[in-house]
Amino acid sequence: MHTDDRSAMRAKFAPPTETPRHSGMSRRSLLATAALLITTTGATAKVVTKVLPWRPNEAYPVTPVVPGGWLFFTADEAAVVDAIIDRLIPADELGPGAKDSGVTTFIDRQLTGPYGGHDWLYMKGPFATNPLPTQGLQSPLTPRQQYRQGLAALAAYCKANFGGRSFVDLSGEDKDKLLAGMEKGDIKFEGFSSRMLFNAVHTNTMEGFFADPIYGGNKDMAGWKLIGFPGVRYDFRDVIDNPNKPYTLPPVSLQGQPAWGVR
Amino acid sequence: MVRRLPRKDVAIVGLGWTGSIMALELCRSGLDVVAIERGPWRDTATDFNIGTAPDELRYAVRHDIFLRTRQETLTMRNNSSQTALPIRRWGSFLPGNGVGGAGSHWNGQTWRFLPDDFRLRSKMIERYGEGIMPEGNQIQDWPMSYDELEPFYDKFEYVLGISGKAGNIKGQTQAGGNPFEGSRERDYPTPPMKQGYSQELFMKAAAGMGLHPFPRPSANLSSAYTNPYGCSMAPCTYCGFCERFGCSNYSKSSPQTCVLPALVREPNFEARTECEVTKVTLSGDGKMATGVVYVDANGEEWEQPADLVLLCAYGLFNVRLMLLSGIGKPYDAGTGEGVVGRNYAYQTGSGATAFFDNVNFNPFAAAGSLGAALDDYNSDNFDHGPHGFVGGASITNAYTNGRPIMYRPTPRGTPTWGSAWKKAVRETYQRVTNVGAQGSVMSYRANYLDLDPTYKDELGRPLMRMTFDYQPNEIKMANWMAERCEAIAKAMGAKTTQINRLNTPWNVVPYQSTHNTGGTVTGSDPKTSVLNRYLQSWDVPNVFVMGASTFPQNAGYNPTGTVGALTYWALDAIQKKYLKSPGALVQQ
Ligand SMILES: Cc1cc2nc3c(=O)[nH]c(=O)nc-3n(C[C@H](O)[C@H](O)[C@H](O)COP(=O)(O)OP(=O)(O)OC[C@H]3O[C@@H](n4cnc5c(N)ncnc54)[C@H](O)[C@@H]3O)c2cc1C
Ligand code: SF4
């Protein structure tokens, strides 16, 4: 199934040109045995009979994010996102924060993939203007649109309310006050929900700080080290056998340990 | 243009748990079987590879291997005075897609329902009188008994290799098991999983309170096992990437590990993947199915004629296919007439969070079914008289995972960001546990499934509409259970506890459970059921429906043990009765 996904993950933020017709999924190539059966039945489905239709290593690995530059953000937007996430997860005596952990790169790369366009979601209208809180996501805005419009609205708000300054130039205290107001929805931006922007950045920051470093955030597994999550070791029989003992081994990610020189 | 393919004996819609079992057994009965599955082929070595599988963002958060709402979703509302809106991002439940279905990324908690659950209506009225029955309920007895299903529960558990400890073998109570369970012929095929430190505390505390804790039955295997189909499994490593993930170790029972390796070797089996069945076709008089129509990956439409059609598309999608195909009378909530879509039910969740000092719970050493449970407050195992509700819950202390994007609890009132949050998240991770109650949901006139008047899928067909909310009976029950959970948490030695009441109204955003039941229920009366006791359509006797859509109401357990037992039960009737003399197995 995976070829389109792979290309979608690699794609820049331009919407995918070819949209799989009804599945939002991509296709796996055929085996010779399968193809033979297809001609005998005349159907173009993937036909599986008598053998397991797999080839080694067909599962697609994710493409590791290479830090450097922005694929979605402008330099100004990236600077604001950096400044916001630095307040959300600050560097302090407990260790690095979101900014040093590459979370802005994580968000930038997520926004360029299928997540950024809500490619896998049902996005047909009509879009209700007043949904029930129990009905969940109902906005027609994709994450890319939320960031682009939300960050512009934040910039305009700061300019108007902080003497022409940008969010980046505010004092730590002012930044926190503003973010707290956005979180509650008390701050009114012109033409955009401040709360929607806050939620998008907050959600993606937590994702980036705690996701596998392969996605560009959680550099050196800082998020995992903060709480003591050992990552992808995949075998904790020793832990179950030794109840209530502190776990002391360092974490491992999909690309290995930092000591292995990956990053 | 629809093109017609050569006839098959059996067309199966969906190749998850129920579809794969049906396919294998019917091939072995000598039939030509085609299974049509809308997602891709998936198996362990390629798709659940250890180098890619333990990826929380990709699988648990972005839902890589789940059904995508763009392909199919539902609309939802809490009651019929509201306008339903599409579920655009899965939350409350997470339907599967692809070979293996939800059976490839489930947790694996594999229960039998209790004998009383199958005759709930009669039992309640006998013991407490009509007065206890909740307002607007449509609770029904099941048309088969626990004893009738017992051999088929056994069969399913031995195919899956379930790890557990029997509590009742041939009527004899067994130490260490669940004393409330129905009598079983023999013990589980593999011993129970080892438990973690938190479960040790839970079992000790509960036993001290006079309750009866036991290790819960698990499809994450405690030891190597080869099942009756010759499929081999390896011991679970407590990897903590279980629910929402395929297992890289061949340790989680799934169609991939337990059925497909045998199935693909059957010469008269064929699977067509990336093909979505759009409807069951009927004869001119509507009394027989002639086959199914599906759309392949290229958007081409095919008709697959078949003598027997089995809907194994997951409970919710079985209901939609019945509605779209015009099989059975759709339920009308206004008049209370009709049956397809009737008695939709779900599951309650409530409990208590417990914060300790100076412990290392190591929540990452976890598995989908790791946990200790007790049934003292489930079904009719306790006196409902003083409480004024029907139903119950299994109470569990478990770690299914400690994956940090989604699992990083903090005490209520903690800031959600900043240095104070950082400190709290670090301090809490190792010393928090949860005592949870998974409760039954009764069926009501007000909760149902029908076709949405506004929203359509990519093929232009109406989405299904879910109208559901927790009713006062469930709220009362779940909140009473939360107090029981808190009492246990305190007895475990928690420094502080936090009670988690049932989240109402039902909200589609937070994950609750993929335990959607009802809509094509089995029963003795065609006026209040879609299927007879063999899960055969009353209206179109060469259509059988498998899955939790057959439950008249839901019990205080995960559904799949019962889904599996019912599948083998229906299969037995198909093999022993239907194939000898095709037609209605129960006369109306
Ligand atoms: C995250 C998660 C955790 C769970 N944990 C547990 C647990 O711990 N214990 C428990 O008892 N249960 C659990 N469940 C539920 C369990 O997975 C299901 O009960 C079980 O898989 C149901 O089997 P089924 O055959 O009815 O459906 P599935 O296994 O889902 O298979 C249905 C198949 O039909 C296919 N299909 C659907 N529509 C069509 C169509 N129109 N055309 C062609 N194909 C179609 C689907 O793609 C799918 O492959 C969990 C489910 C999820 C998602
Ligand atoms: S917890 Fe066990 S069964 Fe679950 S995925 Fe990990 S190894 Fe497999």
UniProtKB/TrEMBL annotation, chain A:
Pfam family, one: Gluconate_2-dh3
Superkingdom of origin: Bacteria
Record-linked InterPro entries: Gluconate_2DH_su3
Region Disordered: start-end pairs: 1-25
Name this protein carries in UniProt: Gluconate 2-dehydrogenase gamma chain
Automatic annotation (TrEMBL), chain B:
One Pfam family cited in the UniProt record for this chain: GMC_oxred_C
Keyword Lyase: no
This protein's UniProt keywords: FAD, Flavoprotein, Oxidoreductase
GO molecular function, one term: oxidoreductase activity, acting on CH-OH group of donors
Record bears the keyword Flavoprotein: yes
SUPFAM superfamilies (alphabetical): FAD-linked reductases, C-terminal domain, FAD/NAD(P)-binding domain
Chain segments carrying region Disordered: 170-190
Span of domain Glucose-methanol-choline oxidoreductase N-terminal: 236-344
Every Glucose-methanol-choline oxidoreductase C-terminal domain range: 446-566
Family named by the database record: Belongs to the GMC oxidoreductase family.
Record's protein name: Gluconate 2-dehydrogenase flavoprotein
Organism: Bradyrhizobium oligotrophicum S58
